[in-house]
Write a structure and sequence with these properties.
Pfam families: cobW. The chain is α/β, with parallel strands linked by helices. The chain contains 8 helices and 10 strands. The structure holds guanosine-5'-triphosphate and magnesium ion (MG).
Length: 274
Amino acid sequence: MAETTVPARAFRLGVAGPVGTGKTSLIALLCRELADEIEMGVVTNDIYTDEDAQILRAAGVLEIDRIRAVETGACPHTAIRDDVTPNLIAVEDLERDHGPLDLVLVESGGDNLTATFSPALVDAQIFVLDVAGGGDVARKGGPGIARADLLVVNKTDLAPYVDVDVERMLSDASAARDGGPVIGLSRHDPASVDALTDWVRRMTALVRGGGHTPVDPGPMAPHSHADEDGHVTVHSHGTAGHDDADHPHERMSHTHAHPHERHPHALAHERPAV
Ligand SMILES: Nc1nc2c(ncn2[C@@H]2O[C@H](COP(=O)(O)OP(=O)(O)OP(=O)(O)O)[C@@H](O)[C@H]2O)c(=O)[nH]1
Ligand SMILES: [Mg+2]
């Protein structure tokens, strides 16, 4: 019998980046532009709320039940890198309820410059910076900037107001990525929106056709968090994708657009070979 290389599941595309760079807006844009031609779903990760999911549902860009939220608890990068189970369950729920899907977008909770997705959760990832974070940020590098599958420099329309030279920032970013793809994006610039949607279309076809091997951009640098009581903890993560004892996970939960019974998912998730 001939082997098929087409994966039985959707292309999982992560969207990471620092707080407020425009991850939810980018996802809304992709839904608006592509939902007519690509079967899509979205999973959002917020620390204590499902606010990003609510924003996307309110934007009316996708059927509300195709937008699911994971509440990550204190340590947002944990949910996309060290303990990906609630996200995998949310993705699998979407595929079970609305499948077959072509593309599931997973938004990371806004985090620091070194937060990246585990390849156990996503097939590819976009890292989002914005010009308002400063023209130097791209030069500083880090695993997301250097090795995400695509780097987006967002809000280029704001560059004149924050004294950033966009061309310079894009060429610095390209240098930090050894020539890897970089897109300057503004939702007010249709050509840049086309560049983004073209990249997503091409990646979807590549991944669904079995022609893409996920790459791990690498672990986070040591970093610190303030907890709810204002205590700051500095820590680092192991490189093998397992939990550190000082990371609280107990708050992580998985919520739905409307209540329905939890299904009996096994907690061990094997990633099908692509
Ligand atoms: N001027 C301009 N503003 C933008 C653009 N894209 C997003 N924004 C604004 O940037 C702000 C943050 O956008 P979000 O999409 O919520 O950012 P986020 O990265 O999802 O934020 P967190 O999830 O909180 O980390 C919002 O006020 C958006 O309207 C853009 O292309 N141009
Ligand atoms: Mg967001």
